[in-house]
Amino acid sequence: MRLLMSRKRHRLRCRRRIRDRGPVALVAKRKSLRCQQDDNYHVDRGISCPDLPEDILRHIHAKMTLRDAARATCASHAFRHNWICRPNLTFSLGTLGLNRNASRDVITRDLISKIDLIMQNHSGIGVKTLDIDLYSCDNIDFAYLDSWLRIAVTPGIEELILTLPLPSIVFENALPIISVYNFPCSLLSNGSGNSIQYLNLCYCTLRPTAGLGCLRSLTRLHMSCTRITGDELWCLLSNSPALVCLKLLHCEEIISLKIPSLLQRLRFLEVAYCDRLQVVESNAPNLTTFYFAGFLGQISLGGSLQLKTLRMICFRQTNIVCYARQNLLSIAPNVETLTISSLNEMVNTPMLSSKFLHLKLLQISLVGMAFSGAYDYLSLVSFVDASPCLENFVLAISQHRMGHASILGEPSHDLRQIPQQRHAKLKSVTITGFCSAKSLVELTCHILENTTSLDCLTLDTTCHPSCAVTKFDKCHPLMDGDSLVEAQKALLAIRRYVLGKVPSMVKLNILEPCSRCHAVESLVSTAKLS
């Protein structure tokens, strides 16, 4: 209210001053304001644009989203030149504001037409990033892609991301042929290869040759569902001395992956679900992180002393935990973080004298619809006891129904004992999918009895995240009646065999099925248990 009154008083004073001085003063005031406006602003189509240096305008325009940049170009002449020299070009359904629920034919037509319109009006000068996402399209005319790449992939480009649709089947002379885009490697031989830092190709074919030239600035190479052989990849890697990160996903033509020793800067390597892959041989001396998923064949990392993080996901073999215990020390002797995921593990982990002297975090995930009961959870003591610096141990068990013998009904003196190995650094132990399997209870008791440094023990009997964790209205649907029965058994096993062994200084967290979502089921499962 005070502000309004102040404005009114100001207007009244101005009117009195103009009235006293006459109409000449009013005209002069208007001319002064108009001159000041012309000096400080460019006006175009009724939209004012600050009179800023060209480089600042270009920077502002480059920071806008594609849609906002297009609107600014239509509204102001000052931005038009920046539009045809826009450095960051990201094309997708989202950035172009297209309807995701339209038919694939409509999506293909609209997406191609909009991208082509923008690219044909682009000067090709100053492009730093080109990101084209055509995954939602069908039956693309690859001539468009060739045209766009010729415009944008010029010396100075730094990032090229190309996501194409799933390969389609076309017919030539009545014969079916899989249509896959062949990326023109010649574009990287005209000087563009000197500046490109990030290359990401998905659903295309890449056939590099010896004449590719040096990609001296390439630090990140990601290929997903890309057709490239092991020899062709070797050629590409041999011309990428600055490479830091290499990711290969679903590259089906690679049988043997060999990484040259000249990749002195390579730190991160991920190889996932390359189904025909048989050999992984890396001579990169400074590799620190290796992720592998798929069928485990021959792996050699040159005894890399720098490798600190190792993750292995093998759902087509039943002895991965055993393999890791027997062979990983020769592959990664100084590993500090180790993650192993296995499907239906059948081979027990052997007790060996070798030690993981630097291992601090151990995560083991055992997945299966139903274990046969042959696997002995207590054998995992081999890993724990072989890791004197271990601080965090996570065991995740996922099974639809338990096939192991339950400990309930067993006399407590029948629990197996393993020669003591004291753990002075283990602080946290988490077991998800905790059940009443006798060998799992024995493993838990062994850790409690032989760990003097333990701060926290978490036993999760739910197998699946509850609504309190996922923030959904209801718990995971796979938490059915059988799972609830086993959860009740697990809780009873904890109370009977584990609770009394927990030292007073250890925080015990017991997670059980959500009482809100499973109130009725819990009553039924309790009745079955009794």
From TrEMBL:
It holds the Pfam family LRR_At1g61320_AtMIF1. Signal peptide: none annotated. SUPFAM superfamilies: L domain-like (SSF52058). PANTHER family: EXPRESSED PROTEIN, OS02G0105600 PROTEIN. The lineage of its organism: Eukaryota, Viridiplantae, Streptophyta, Embryophyta, Tracheophyta. This is At1g61320/AtMIF1 LRR domain-containing protein. Residues 118-515 form the At1g61320/AtMIF1 LRR domain.
